[in-house]
Design goal:
Blueprint lengths: L9 H11 L6 E4 L4 E3 H18 L7 E5 L4 H12 L3 E5 L5 H10 L2 E7 L3 H5 L8 E4 L9 H6 L15 E6 L9 E5 H8 L2 H6 L6 E4 L6 H14 L2 E3 L6 H11 L3 E4 L1 H10 L10 E4 L6 H11 L4 E5 L6 E4 L12 E2 L4 E5 L12 E6 L12 H4 E2 L2 E10 L5 E6 L4 E3 L2 E3 L1 H9 L4 E11 L3 E10 L7 H12 L10 E4 L13 H6 L3
Parallel strand pairs: 1-10, 3-4, 3-5, 5-6, 9-10, 9-11, 11-12, 12-13, 24-25
Antiparallel strand pairs: 1-2, 7-8, 13-14, 14-15, 16-17, 17-19, 18-19, 19-20, 21-22, 23-24
Helix pairs in contact: 1-2, 2-3, 7-9, 10-11, 11-12
This protein binds 5'-O-[(S)-[(2-aminobenzoyl)oxy](hydroxy)phosphoryl]adenosine (3UK).
The site of 5'-O-[(S)-[(2-aminobenzoyl)oxy](hydroxy)phosphoryl]adenosine has 24 residues, from helix 9, strand 13, strand 19 and strand 20.
Length: about 500
Amino acid sequence: ELQYPARLNSAAELLDGASARGWDGRTALVGTRERLSYAALRARVDRIAHVLRQDLGLASGSRVLVRGANCPMMAACILAVIKAGCIAVPTMPLLRARELGTIASRARVGAVLCAAGLRAEVDAMEPGGLPLLLFDVPDDAPESLEARMAAHDSPYPAHDTAADDICLISFTSGTTGVPKGTMHFHRDLLAICDCFPRHTLATQADDVFIGTPPLAFTFGLGGLLLFPLRVGACAVLAEKLSPETLLAAIQEQRATVCFTAPTFYRQMAQLADRFDLSSLSRSVSAGEALPVATRAAWKAATGLEMIDGIGATEMLHIFISAAGSAVRPGATGKPVPGYQACILDEDGRRLGPGQVGRLAVKGPTGCRYLDDPRQRNYVHEGWNITGDAYQMDEDGYFHYCSRLDDMIISAGYNIAGAEVEEVLLHHPAVAECGVVGRADEERGQVVEAHVVLKPGVAAGAETALALQEFVKARIAPYKYPRVVRFREQLPRTETGKLQRFKLRSDAV
Ligand code: 3UK
C-alpha cells in the first residue's frame, strides 16, 4: 500500500523534492532549443506560478487550460498550474476550436496558457474572452507569458493542498462520442510514478526518457515528465516526431527508455538498422494492443523485448504489463504491483481462466469522471470496468481480445478484429492493417480488412486472395476477411490509436 502525507502538492514534491535530494545540477528536460537543469526548471515553474496567482489573480482550484506541443515550456506550465494549487487541463495540439470549447466549458476553465503558434484555435473558441497568456512569443507582445515571468524571481512556496485535492483534469482522446473529463488527485500523480516505472521499468537517475505521446495525454505526462522527475532522470521533449526522427533522437540523445504506440514501433523496426540504438534498454508500447509480429520485428531489429502495457486516461497510467523474462508474447502481462485485475461477465460475476469477459481493475488510481453519468458504468464497487474484452490464462497473464464495442459479430460468431490483424501482420506484404465489422444483411456483420501494403507490393484481387488464404490457414476460417480494401494509410488519433469507427463508416 502506497502512503502519502495528507497534505501534499505533487508538483512541489517533485520539484522542491528534487532540490532537497541534491539534484539541482542534473538535467531535467532537453528540448529542441534548450536544456533545463532541475534548478532551472523549478525556477521557471515558480515564476509561472507567481504569474498565475498574482497577475491573473487565480484562486485555488481554478482550472487552467494548457495548450502546446511537447517542449520544456509546456511541461513547466502544467507543473506551475499544479504547484500553484490550481487544476491543469492539458489539451492536445491537434484539437480544434470546437473541441477546445467543449473542454473549456465542461471543465469550467478560468484561464489559458498557450504556445503562440497554436493560438488561432483558442481565439476562435467559444467560450471566448478567457484570460490568455502565450509562450514562445517576443517579450513585447501584449500576452507574453515570458514578459510577465521576468517580473517574478522569488521562489514560489508550494501551495498547501490536500493529497486528495484534484490537480489534473485529463480528457479522453474520444475515439467516438463526447470527450470525457477524468479528474486526478495530487497523490495519483505520485502513485503512478511509484508503480509501473518503479516495478516494471526499474527507472534510475541516469535514465534518459524519450517518446512521442503528447504531455496532454496521460501516457506522455507520466512517461515523459512525471516518471523521470520522480527519480532525478532526464526527459527529451521533441515536437512532431516521425519514426525516423525519433530514431535519430534516440541515437543523438543516447536515450535509454522509449515510450510510443505499436504503429510507431512497426515503422521504426523497418528503419532501425540505419541508427545506433545501443543506448536503449527499455521500449514501452501502449495505446493499443501490441501484435506478436510487431514485438518480433522490433526484437529482430534491436534485440529488445518490448514492454507492452495497458493504461487508460481514467486510470492515469499503465496497470497491466510485463518486462524482460516475464514477457509472454501475445499477453499484455500481469497487474502492475499495486493493482489487481479480474475478468467479469455482463452481470459482474468473476470469470475463470480462459473465459473472455470485461477487464476490471482496482488500485491506487481510478476513474472519477467530471460530471458524467457514465461514471456509473465505469466503476462498480471500486472495480474499474475499462471497456476492453480480455481473458486471463492459468498463470494469471491477461490477454487482450478487443474493445467491447469493437467485437465483430458475424453469422453468430464473435470475432476480435485484433486477432485477424495479428495474423495479417505476419504476412510479408502487410505494413499496417485494421479489421472491422461492416453491416451486412445476411450475416449481421462481415469481417473487413483495411490493409496498407509494404512498398513495392501491388494491390489487387490476387493480393487480396493471398491474404484471405493466409488468414484461413492460420485461424478458424470463419474469421477470414471477406472484404479486403487497400489503403495508403489508416486513420489514427494523435495518440496512435486506430480510428475503427472511421474504417467502418468510410463509404468506398
Ligand atoms: C486501449 C490497450 C491493448 C484499451 C493510455 C497508457 O491508451 C491510454 O489511454 P486511453 O484513455 O485509452 C485506453 C484504452 O486504450 N489500450 C491501451 N493500451 C493498450 N489495449 N493493449 C494495450 N497495451 O482499449 C484501453 O481501455 O487513450 C495508455 C498510459 C496511459 C494512457 N492514458
